[in-house]
Amino acid sequence: MSAAGAAGVLVLAAAVLAASQAPGAGPAPAPVAQQWAASWAASPQGPYPSGNAAAQPVLEFAVESAESGALDQSFRLIIRPDLWGAQFRIRFTNAFGTKPVTFDDIYVGLQASGANVVPGTSHRVTFNRGRASVALPPGQALFSDPIRLGFVTAGGTPLLAGRKLALSFHVVGSSGPMTWHAKALTTSYLTAPHSGSHSADEDDDAFASSTTSWYFVDMLDVLVPAGTAVIAAFGDSITDGTASTLNGDDRWPDVLSRRLHATYGSRVSVVNAGIGGNQVLGPSRYSPEEPFSGGPAARDRLDRDVLALSGLSAVVWLEGINDLSTGATAEAVIAGMQDVVRRVRARGVRIVGATITSSLGSSGGSGTAEADERRRAVNAFIRGAGNFDAVADFDAATLDPKTGALRPAFQPNSTTGGAGDRLHPNRAGYLAMGNAINLSLIAQPGLVRRQAHQGDRPRGRLAP
Question: Could you tell me where the beta strands, DSSP code E, fall in 1-56?
Fold first, then answer.
């Protein structure tokens, strides 16, 4: 287990027998060490509406203004845990707020369809040992108390694989600028401004507006056996999933997750820390005068969005095309990568470098032959011996050798249609990327041995 995982909270899930147990009952079973592991993430990228959502509905009737933000209304966010368990905790964030935000009437349950919750599955979420509301100051984040979901067993259940949670909460008064993640590619729901609290409702009658973004929440943890591997997919819009299918869960990290679960069962979790428009080098900070759509630079958000993930074991990092689009030199991008690699390794976490896919022929600044030459120089560094713990060659998996661009079959947009932008792979392209990763290079050492010892044997091939 990594140093970052060891630094997480360890809980002994013990079955302690009473001192007066019946004779001959045998010794108490050994306590099983457990840990919190990240099961879902959504990196904060700035206040609404900075960023580029995909297939976003019109929100003018759901959000009166960016300055006032949420106004006495309820949110129902739909999120998909990568791992299930009997206990979760949720992190709320006001990372880019300018005033305290108060949340109350917070519930989590199993999504039925749309904004409907499966009857009887909602559980109240509390903070600070039982408080039903929480006020978050600007720039702060806070985990909830542990939440016991009565419909989930401690080890999860195969029937829940791929199912989603409905997280509902009411914003008291005005939130001011809302911290959000623009490109969720998952449909969530809002009530109208000034409509009061409806987060306890199991039906969706009050949630008239839909959105393809997440708000005020950036992490979901699950309590799992110690040694569970957590892998973060770190990057820009190609990790965030632009041009994949809305509600399809077919970004390359999703594909990687399914492969890992088929091989290692419930002993691994994959979370997505991508932000559309993100860069390795900059910009560093948000200001209203110079808003950034892609969030803080990768090296500036590394600690909050990646290294802070509970139980982190490994990182797969795909980034750099947006830096090259703005004219950054290959040398500058490489220097930024070296800094991130050094900091990740210092935490005892493995880091896999993913080669940058081609955007030759796209309309942006990275579409020129000169920019493509810089991209290939960065890729040569990524492939170089010793720079990363391993390499995921996404470029080789998606490149059309005849043209130097993305393969034609990978170009059409899978959600909005059309010919695509020649920058973002579609569903077929993400499938090729997710299948290009050698699983044995990212699984933390000893994972297979622990599984065999604990009876959760790997299934299928270790490597593609």
Answer: 10-13, 32-41, 46-47
